[in-house]
Amino acid sequence: MAGITLNKISKSYGQLQVIHDIDIDIASGEFLVLVGPSGCGKSTLLRMIAGLEDITGGELAIGGATVNTLSPAERNIAMVFQDYALYPHMTVEDNMSFGLKMRGAASDEIGRRVENAANVLKIKDFLKRRPAQLSGGQRQRVAMGRAIVREPAAFLFDEPLSNLDASLRVEMRLEIAKLHNRMKATTVYVTHDQVEAMTLADRIAVMNAGVVEQIGKPLDLYRKPASLFVARFIGSPT
Length: 238
Ligand code: ADP
Ligand code: MG
Fold this sequence. Notes:
It comes from Rhizobium esperanzae. Residues 4-234 form the ABC transporter domain. By secondary structure, the chain is an alpha/beta fold. 37% of the residues lie in helices and 25% in strands. The strands form 2 sheets. The chain has a 6-stranded mixed sheet with strand order 6-7-8-3-9-10, with helices on both faces. The chain has a 4-stranded antiparallel sheet with strand order 2-1-4-5, covered by helices on one side. Helix 3 packs parallel to helix 5 (136-148) and helix 4 packs across helix 5. It starts with a strand and ends in a 5-residue tail after the last helix. The structure holds adenosine-5'-diphosphate and magnesium ion (MG). The site of adenosine-5'-diphosphate has 10 residues, from helix 1.
């Protein structure tokens, strides 16, 4: 696993600057949660880390090496989306192994990784099904499985549970926590859900209009929000 360093990261779409000089040092194995109102730049920041969006200012390093100009594949970072983004025509097994096949991995190695991930995520019984034959929670597990088999340097999650109903959301949150305890993977996780943020995060970064308002351990933010804005997202109700 590798740490991720954001050094004065900025993003402009034409004349419109949406991310302003963000500095964050994410330690190897850390679980960082990003929260903030809709439109504050959370997805844009994740997409820049993943390499899905150009970085228009600053330096991004993964494992100490600058990656600004590397393609998503070269960065070796896995991203899990809220809409799962599974291939509908492929079985679960093929969804999980597709990326490895494209990269020319040996088939016994692919089989080993898919089996491991399927065990960890409890989706062994669904390997021959297609996404349409799965529940939302099962699809989300497959999407996570597809990320895990890559054995990436880091995981990025963009509101992965927001399409699930409340009880499934709780179950999957506990699964993600277990998975993180087991894998200790460097993770950046975007959520709207305060409970997810408080329970999953090593640190929480509260974003507002393209800047980080405050970053710290969940309890520190909860007890000592730096502003009313942070208190609204994390702090105790006053
Ligand atoms: P969040 O994920 O926090 O809701 P986003 O990162 O999606 O926010 O968006 C941040 C800002 O960037 C918003 O103002 C949004 O309208 C703008 N934005 C996002 N993508 C584009 C784009 N492709 N072109 C222009 N503006 C964009
Ligand atoms: Mg978003």
